[in-house]
Amino acid sequence: MTDSKGIRVTCRGLVYIYRLEGYDVVALSGVDLDIEPGEAVALVGPSGSGKSTLLSLMAGLLQPSAGRLTVGEHDVAKASDAELQRMRGLDVGVVLQGASRNLLPYLTAEKNIAFAQSDVPRHRRSELLAPADVLALVGLDESRIARSKPAELAPGERQRLAVAVAMATNPGLLLADEPTSQLDHDARDEVLAAFTAVNRAGTTVIAVTHDPDVGAILGRTVTIRDGRVGAEGRHGQDFAVVARDGAVHLPPDILREVVPGTLLRVEMLDDGSIRMEPAGTA
Ligand SMILES: Nc1ncnc2c1ncn2[C@@H]1O[C@H](COP(=O)(O)OP(=O)(O)OP(=O)(O)O)[C@@H](O)[C@H]1O
């Protein structure tokens, strides 16, 4: 089996603004984030906080309004349309929300993989796995499945096929938007096992999710809040993140007690810890 090489993703002051008629929506307002090659990361956070926008930028489907985003060797803000197309075709696999959006309904599972590989240039073909091996990577190694069309598969199998199609070109980065929503417990575990297998083979995996268990399995969670990185979780421990401008998002349970506008006295103690003490309102 050919191991794919994980891709590094770096965001510096990343801003994205949807420009609508008459007004703008600032979806990302300065994301600073480093994802190492071969890492597995869950992007979590409240609805509307900017997770899907961040994923679309990493996929090269959108280009930054300001700031810097590098995906492997690609500088996404500066890349031409042709470069972004190359990046999407070879380096990044994307699983869109809803398995069927990623699949051609009239082709069998095996032919869906072969179709996804058909645009790979000749000099990169030797890096590709045979369709049956791509299916095996996500645990779909029964010949019944290879010959089935998407509608004939169970929901969990269909979602794993969507992961296989995204992995067909042996990309170094796999992006997935809500990959386990609408699945029952067993199907969800099968899909997560597929992500783990893909990640073990070397690919960087980034998934947007509302499911805390997905975060726990991937190992690192990055919480997006109001268009920025608000917090990080590593193996079950939560951390606030200091942004480049010094801003820190307070954890939601503390924010419930400390109303906006509260004056905080912040001091460093002799033992190196930091104390924040409410001292009235502004
Ligand atoms: N195509 C669009 N046009 C205009 N505004 C948009 C568009 N897509 C997203 N937004 C806005 O950008 C902000 C961030 O949205 P985004 O979908 O990235 O958040 P999210 O965290 O993925 O939300 P959810 O968890 O609900 O999918 C929101 O205010 C949203 O309304």
TrEMBL record:
SUPFAM superfamilies: P-loop containing nucleoside triphosphate hydrolases (SSF52540). GO terms for cellular component: plasma membrane. The keyword Cytoplasm does not apply. Residues 9-251 form the ABC transporter domain. InterPro entries: AAA+_ATPase, ABC_transporter-like_ATP-bd, ABC_transporter-like_CS, ABC_transpr_LolD-like, P-loop_NTPase. This is ABC-type lipoprotein export system ATPase subunit. Coiled coil: none annotated. One of its GO terms (molecular function) is ATP hydrolysis activity. It comes from the Bacteria. PANTHER family: ABC TRANSPORTER RELATED (PTHR24220:SF685), IMPORT ATP-BINDING PROTEIN (PTHR24220). The keyword Nucleotidyltransferase does not apply. Keywords: ATP-binding, Lipoprotein, Nucleotide-binding.
